[in-house]
């Protein structure tokens, strides 16, 4: 018996686990400290009333033989897919329900999708970015190239037409920097992918935070993307589903490689390895896309954006350089006094009792940067701002 090769190359701890471990240690040493967590992007507002109503109704349905449901159909229920299809229609995009696959969230999807590609492919991964892409690419035995996202290119790398890669990760708005591609900028990536038969894995988990009309809300706003892109979305941040677990992927029927339909391969993979999202959760997700549900969810997003505004104002007062917070729920700041990301993490935890996420955990270009999440409650965000002003 031999264990997986990746065990020798992968970092010991997943970024958010490393942060959680440090926090646990600190709490056991100083149980009296009131810690404000602005680390992992976990929502703090409760679910929308419409969502709760739908959950309750569905739970009652499950308790009656006339309306009880067992396994979900492969790829998810039509009632939810239809709602998602309508959302795309509002953007002027035609998506067929058989191109939509309901899942338990973007994190799993972005990892599982590699099952339909051969190991040994070259993956192009932005640096910095959500660490799941790199970790899972290593786990799946992919070759890795990085696309540098630095201040000089506004954290938005462009394709290098002289280099050939097979799989391209794009996260827009980006986690952690908050930078987001315009439609024109995305078109370049699509032209590049189509020119070299690469496939773009487009993570749009933070799309609900976009407010500039020029920015790309879905990669399928650019028609040529249907032959080179898969899109991933999640209800986690748009409807507060971090604990509910629901997301989806869109794999166009036009996406073919080596005479095979990637849609069929993904469907085959789903059927073999996944028994679907619970009926109650799919009904809850459907309710979040109803007219009333959407209004409630938009209110929550506005609330988190107001948090971002408060933090931005304080950082401006302190002359700390930062990015993001406008089309994204994250603030990406330059660590003061040239501190490393982990030095600043320790400083904030020890002296201000605030937890954030060290930028270096998102890639080497994240060193000397730091991410603050705007998903805490207003009271805690306000309190964090006061601590920043008093102590930094
Ligand atoms: C983050 O903090 O980057 C996200 O909340 C993590 C996730 O979505 O898995």
Task: Give a description of the structure.
This protein has 392 residues and is α/β, with parallel strands linked by helices. It has two domains: 143 residues, Aspartate Aminotransferase, domain 1 (Alpha-Beta Complex), CATH 3.90.1150.10; 241 residues, Type I PLP-dependent aspartate aminotransferase-like (Major domain) (Aspartate Aminotransferase, domain 2, 3-Layer(aba) Sandwich), CATH 3.40.640.10. The chain contains twelve helices and 15 strands. The structure holds D-malate. D-malate binds next to loops.
Chart the SSEs and their pairings.
Blueprint: H1 6-9, H2 15-29, E1 36-37, H3 49-62, H4 78-90, E2 100-103, H5 106-112, E3 122-127, H6 132-139, E4 143-148, E5 167-171, H7 183-196, E6 199-203, E7 229-234, E8 247-250, E9 256-257, E10 260-261, H8 262-273, H9 279-288, H10 291-317, E11 322-324, E12 330-334, H11 341-352, E13 354-355, E14 357-358, E15 369-373, H12 378-391
Helix pairs in contact: 3-9, 4-9, 10-12
The site of D-malate has 5 residues, from loops.
What keywords describe this structure?
Aspartate Aminotransferase, domain 1; 392 residues; Aspartate Aminotransferase, domain 2; alpha/beta; binds D-malate; globular; four-stranded antiparallel sheet; seven-stranded mixed sheet
- Ions, cofactors, ligands: which are bound? D-malate
CATH fold-type name of the largest domain: Aspartate Aminotransferase, domain 2
User: What is the count of structural domains?
Assistant: 2
Q: Which structural class should the secondary elements be placed in? A: alpha/beta
- Tell me which CATH architecture of the largest domain applies here: 3-Layer(aba) Sandwich
Q: Class of the largest domain, according to the CATH hierarchy?
A: Alpha Beta
Topology as H/E string?
Answer: HHEHHEHEHEEHEEEEEHHHEEHEEEH
Strand content: 15-25%
Principal-axis shape equals globular
Give the radius of gyration: 21 Å
Uncertain spans, ≥5 residues at pLDDT below 50? none
What is the makeup of the main sheet? 7 strands, mixed
- Tell me the number of strands: 15
Q: Report the average pLDDT across residues.
A: 97
| CATH-defined superfamily of the largest domain | Type I PLP-dependent aspartate aminotransferase-like (Major domain)
Total of helices: 12
